[in-house]
Design brief:
BirA Bifunctional Protein, domain 2, eleven-stranded mixed sheet, 23 strands, Translation Initiation Factor IF3, Rossmann fold, alpha+beta, homodimer, five-stranded mixed sheet
């Protein structure tokens, strides 16, 4: 009964109010629930299953590139957090502090990790002695806490789940190569697993990570033209190594500082999936992370043999796919709406006449297209269709990204685009932080996303100040 | 170079000092490192890989029994923790409190979860409305914090990793069945995956979980005769449901309280593995969770064809097993000691003469036994030998458990055993908490482990007070 209360019509349309549409979707599809701790969310089974599929895929990619998982404490003593000056300045304002434990006031307060560079460095200082100990390629899956004022499920929350890679290398070149290698892992994961195209490149000085020498980013664009910082990879040089006195004896027997990277992606990716692919009927999940890849809906289930055949079909598909057979007594129409809202990529309808003819009906979530196909070789047909859905989702998102990407040749044009359109703006920039700040102020929030890897020469001068341009920058509003 | 510093001889022998042996093993085999947060540990790659194998196996068992994973916030507001009286009394003394966040003092302090009953109940109150919403079978993998005074890696630490299942059922019978089903999952996992036999049964009132109606436990015995509480499963009745006002409309349309369970195991299981199977040479890992199931050590590696053949053998085994080929320039003797210390179940030696003859030498970690076997069908031979090692580890531990299990018919006998022997003591008990307390005081720490499922009638009277006996109880010291 309670399940039947859910009505697809309750979802606000994207064009009416995108923010409200998002909140409706995450609540009504039971991805999350709110908790009594402000800004902390409950990730419900359907949401967590997406995260598990993301984790499994990414973890395999990390291991294939030589990384090992570890687990660091969730607390950082205040004195440890303060060891690297830029880092503590960046994070101290947004941490949560533990001051009491076991009924007593602590001698030193502990912050709940907002990120774990300091903990990794403390450990690396103990275990790195020789060039033979390098590289160290560690990753950690955990939750972190950043005390945000305004929070939204998946996009920005006081606590979130993520992975953080932390690596140490003999040379700067190796560390730089690692930084870019992991960014490429993210870019490929977004494309091949989430069906999401990204703009990628280097963050400006103003936007880089607290304590990093260089930060690289992948920036998917949401359906409404707003950017989501989708994943970052940082090159630290030897700054932390010096602050934490991590040294190794090199091949030439001199003591040297190793070179460091870190890189991370989080449950925010689930927000990216929702806002890239979702539509007015609810979620549209990319097949490679969908908790249910295909749902089987029996038609006229009371008729002899229908349920048995549906079970047989389900069993034959379960080896290769994540399949759900819905044999509840809800009507087929109700089921169609329910799984449409939940974004299940493929629906398989099976009725008495289909069974007679040895066929079933496949309905794609992305296009609504119906196809009658033979039950023979169904697994191969399903595999092919799921791949098609993946490609079509990617292409649709890529088209949106292209359609919403503009080029500004002068500042009037820039301001006009920023005011009238929602999307990315390509423009030239002199390298001066003041011009970034001016853009942000004049537009009420447009910021540099990145200096893209494939820079174009739009003009010779900075779009803001007219001084000689140093870089092509992609600008945009962000979540 | 730094790796070569590790010497097997540095491990204290078990008979000399078991506690010291344990600490030596966890440090020297690089399972953990200490951190600057008292009582919190760094789980290093070799230790974390064991945990990943444990997780993968258990998670599949949970899903096969119908459970879904979720993620709850890591913080519990003080008012929420206080909703169930017994529960807060049990946990409040050992929690860590967050009092400040984002630069401000919080209106209400938050504890870092020591366990998540209260959070699950808050959520269940919102999502359970009808008998159709039941059962809810949720599990969570996360870290929890209990501010312990005395800590030891894996056995007792301020922060540890675990899973906590929390389920809600329509009837008491269903919830009781779930409680026992999950205990059986743990017992079977200990036996079939960790090769560890357990004593199992119900905790006495004194030893049950804060807020539970009944607690069940699996209690493996460590090599030295000391118990480790290896996993618990709790039946809550409807106590939390009443405290949190979780109600559903039943089949008869009346409002009812659901019946609840919770169950958990933690990284403490890695401590159980170490202390059950380890020996004076270091770790002995059960094959089904060993990060490396077999290590290939090439002999006379400089000779033509040896390394190539070793790589070929490694490649042929990697599909079915977790294999490491050690082709470093350390000596074979050094490698033998290293992987022996690290507890790798099987060593595969491959030299020029072996290759000529189409054979290799298999050396078992548990017995040291060497066998020359054909390279043809090697994967099947390895599979069979790993199964043999598993069985032999289990049987060795079972024999230790039997050898160290005693029966006390009267209190003098009980005290004599408690003084002279280390192990489990079977005895009769009247059901009075005072007698448990007396035993603990008189023996300096022997406590009831459980009322075993297969109770025996050792005598008619309580071993302490001589009043009529109610139960057979297994007693023992614990970690």
């Amino acid at each position: 009964m309670s399940e039947q209360k859910k009505m697809v019509e309750e979802i606000t349309s994207r064009d009416t109010d995108f923010a409200r549409w998002y909140t409706d979707v995450v609540k009504k599809t039971e991805l999350v629930d709110y908790s009594s701790v402000k800004g902390c969310m409950v990730i419900r089974p359907y949401g967590y299953a997406i995260w598990e599929n993301i984790q499994k895929d990414l973890d395999a990619r990390f291991k294939a590139t030589g990384h090992e998982n570890v687990y660091m404490p969730m607390f950082i003593p205040e004195s440890l957090l303060q060891k690297e000056k830029d880092h503590v300045e960046g994070f101290a304002p947004e941490v949560a502090w533990v001051t009491h434990g076991g009924g007593e006031k602590l001698a030193e307060r502990l912050c709940v990790r907002p990120t774990s560079e300091t903990l990794f460095c403390e450990h690396y200082a103990k275990i790195i002695n020789s060039y033979r100990d390098l590289p160290k390629l560690y990753n950690q899956w955990c939750s972190v806490v950043r005390w945000e004022k305004t929070t939204r499920p998946f996009l920005r929350s006081a606590e979130f789940l993520w992975q953080e890679g932390h690596t140490m290398h003999e040379t700067a070149e190796e560390a730089k190569a690692e930084t870019l290698r992991m960014l490429e892992v993210y870019r490929d994961f977004y494309k091949e697993t989430l069906a999401i195209p990204v703009v990628w490149g280097q963050k400006t000085e103003k936007e880089k990570f607290a304590g990093a020498e260089a930060t690289y980013t992948v920036e998917p664009m949401m359906h409404n033209g707003v950017a989501l910082q989708g994943g970052t990879s940082h090159y630290f040089g030897d700054g932390f190594a010096r602050a934490f006195n991590i040294r190794f004896s090199g091949r030439d027997n001199t003591l040297q500082y190793p070179h460091q990277t870190s890189w991370g992606v989080s449950t925010r990716m689930i927000g990216a999936i929702i806002m890239t692919h979702g539509d007015d009927s609810g979620l549209v999940l990319p097949p490679r992370v969908a908790p249910i890849q295909a749902v089987i809906v029996p038609i006229a289930m009371h008729k002899g043999g229908v349920l048995e055949k549906a079970e047989e079909v389900a069993a034959s598909l379960k080896e290769r796919f994540r399949i759900k057979l819905d044999a509840t007594d809800n009507s087929p129409g109700w089921k169609f709406s329910e799984y449409e809202m939940k974004g299940v990529p493929l629906r398989i309808e099976l009725g008495p006449r289909d069974i007679e003819q040895g066929v079933c009906v496949l309905v794609r979530r992305d296009t609504g297209e119906k196809t009658t196909v033979s039950l023979e070789g169904l697994a191969d047909t399903v595999a092919e269709m799921l791949d098609n859905i993946h490609d079509s989702l990617y292409n649709r998102a890529l088209e949106n990204l292209k359609n919403r990407t503009y080029t500004a040749h002068d500042y009037d044009e820039f301001l006009a685009i920023a005011k009238e359109k929602s999307g990315y703006i390509n423009a030239m920039w002199c390298g001066d932080e003041a011009c970034e700040t001016k853009i942000k102020e004049d537009t009420g929030g447009v910021k540099s996303r990145c200096i893209p890897f494939d820079e174009e020469q739009i003009s010779d001068v900075c779009v803001v100040c007219g001084k000689p341009a140093k870089h092509h920058v992609v600008f945009g509003r962000q979540y």
